[in-house]
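[SOLVED] Need 3D model of a two-part complex

Original post:
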Amino acid sequence: MVLQTIWFFLWGLLWALFFMTDGFDFGVGTLYPFLGKSDQDKRIMINSLGPLWDGNEVWLITAGGVTFAAFPTVYAVMFSSLYSALMLILFALILRGVSFEFRGKVDDPRWRKIWDTCIFIGSFLPALLFGVAFANIFKGLPIDHNGIYHGTLFTLLNPYGLLGGVLFVMLFLVHGALWLAIKTQGDLHHRAASVANKLWPVLLGVAVIFLIASKFSTRLYDNYLAHPAFFIVILITVFALFGIKYFMVKETFFKAWFASALTIVGATFYGVIGLYPDMFPSTIDSQFSLTAHNASSSPLTLKIMLIVVIIFIPVVIGYQVWAYTLFKGKVTKEDLAYEEAY
Amino acid sequence: MDVVLLSRLQFAAATMFHFLFVPFTLGLSILVAYMETRYVKTGDETYLRMTKFWGKLFLINFALGVVTGITLEFQFGTNWSRYSAYVGDVFGSLLAIEATVAFSLESILLGVWIFGWKKLSKKAHAGVMWLVAFGSTLSAVWILIANAWMQSPVGFAIRDGRAELVDFAAILFQNHAIFKFLHTVSAAYVLSAFFVMGVSAYHLLKKQNVDFFARSFKIALGFGTIFSFIVVITGDINGVIVAEKQPTKLAAMESLWDTTTRAPVYLFALPDEDNEKNKIEIGALPGMLSFLVHHDINAEVRGLKEFPKDERPPVLITSFAFKGMVGLGFYFIFATVLGWWKRNRLVDSSKYLKLMLLSIPLPYVACELGWIVSEVGRQPWIVYGLMKTSDAVSPVATSQVLTTLIAFIMVYGLLGVTGFYLIAKNAKKGPEPAVN
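Solution:
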């Protein structure tokens, strides 16, 4: 059915938007203890995310909500199967969110230290675990005919799953480092740019290994071989990945960041296209796999939700773009003197 | 303990903790937007200082509200997967619309409000806060429509072994949804008003920033009085709706065992669930319950014994929570009406100020009790009359749920203590001194 297919790709798009936007927040938070040498550096780093991170996280809620609305069976089976991993992500996100708000509220180095640690954990852990979770979805999980998961948290920590985790971490680190290169100046700017430069070959290496490993661990390429036109998505993604390097060398960091955003969206769609129509493949028997066709909502719900997203997703993107343009430019020492700053 | 009980405890912990912050966000966003608008219109710097001072408390609270809300969006999947699969076609869309239409608005624009003081014109900046307030109230609309559907499922048909949507409008516009929204949001506004009045009372007692806090107090007093009345009126209407749609809940609320005409309201009753009677009954008002729910003192009200034992909610918890909530509701009217009497000599009314300071936690208690009535009173159903809570739980290991329950209690406990410590610290500190 066409509606289900549209929804499948919308579902992919919302996750891609989440990774693209909150991805640099995760990257900055993970780089935070390493690049933030002084308290001022640290404050500049979190204030570069200040007005935006909460809006970025909205895409997670939207992606989760849309999974529930359009594919309730997937929502039910996926989140109960990935129970421990998802709970870890949620706790990490809780810590990250309050840390931004709490950190500057008490003037005591020990107090700040606590929230510094939470910012790092709250950024690194979701980056890693989202990668692990999605790689395992690509690969398939032991799901029986009742949608019951026969595994544990450790089932997810297989080599391919971990490779997915490392890939996500690398993508977000580069994305975050480029964001900092755009938003900061002086020494911090140089360190961020240098980190992005150093991490890029690592990202490239991990990406190549992931593309090869996917051949052996997943059936993602079946769709590509059946419809070779889809290889264009992989091509664009690789192109964007090299675009990051190209613009980094030219020191046009906004363009490099944009290329990085495109890389993340491309990487998500690489998996989503390969997965179609599966949404949660079973490794016990492909008959038990949850697909866009057997796990979706009724046509009426899909139609109502389609109208809602067609109207409101552009609206949300609209005011998000407005927020981004309003807060463009570098975060400076003067911005930190601002009483509402983090 | 089994997965059902642990999952219920976990969901109760997560939602009740979340709801410590939600009402404050709902109400204070409006008060802050109002203060900022007054500043834009009059140019009076005191209103700007009010906006900043109450805004700061608002933001600490908001952060906790947001992060604890995110988990809830996923907990239906993690812990209630059978429920999610069975009713997701109806229920999921309501949550998804909340995220797309409402939550996005408040989250994105709040960032703009916090950091945008110098980037936007005064008017636009105040406008952003109104949009944040609108977004959070809109958020409540959708969440409460979803909850109302769990109380009184409408607009669906059972097909292919699940509940499928057939009439969206019936779900959106049923009385249960409308009055649940009005009641809950009014309660939230009362909570924020009492918070502002209580903190103002603290400073007025110390005679600090008298003008600033007397004005803050009066703004909150007006707001709080109106909604103290509305919360009781809508509560009464909700009682009528519950009597019609959820007779077991109503009977549990009033600990009414036998079906009877001229059904009484007891000022106090101690139910004895094993023997299906009340151990103690004090202050019976004959015919009162019949009158309240059917507007006729001789009308018949169905008692708990009319329903099988395994379809009755826990009577003790439901009835105590209900009586506590109602008592507090009337207290809020009393306290705000008293405030009108005292409003022009607040500084000299130290007893009243002390009362209002001590009243800060009461609306919090009332809100939580309200949710206990609503959710415990719905048991053993997760969707009234359609699906039992025990059939709704995920096929996950007890150990996983127990571990996360402990983690929730610890993490939320620490966050709650830290959050309220920061709110109290900043509330006590008072506003920044006036520039000139």
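Edit: The first strand of chain A starts at residue 278 and ends at 280.
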